[in-house]
Specification:
The protein is an all-beta fold. The chain has one domain. 0% of the residues lie in helices and 64% in strands. A hairpin with a 2-residue loop joins strand 6 and strand 7. The termini are close together.
């Protein structure tokens, strides 16, 4: 298994070569957090917010499986599967 990655609010991460980037957007409530998925091509791109329950440990973004280890209002820690 790969090592953990920790993102602070506003920090980005490239999932894998040929896959999208994500940015941790923080928690919108006590039980829901948001990750921004960014799709880019050259100088153009677009993004959207994804919302997940805090208790949800396994998520998939751009066909990449992610195991969420911990999430707070300030940061998220996860591993790529």
């Amino acid at each position: 298994m790969l090592e953990s990655t920790t993102l602070q609010v506003g920090q980005g991460f490239h999932l894998k070569r040929g896959k999208d980037r994500i940015v941790y957007a923080g928690m919108v409530s006590d039980e829901v957090y948001s990750i921004v998925q960014i799709k880019a091509s050259g100088y153009q791109g677009y993004s959207w917010n994804l919302f997940f329950q805090k208790r949800q440990q396994h998520i998939t973004i751009d066909k990449v499986d992610i195991t969420v280890e911990n999430v707070t209002t300030e940061e998220i820690r996860f591993r790529l599967a």
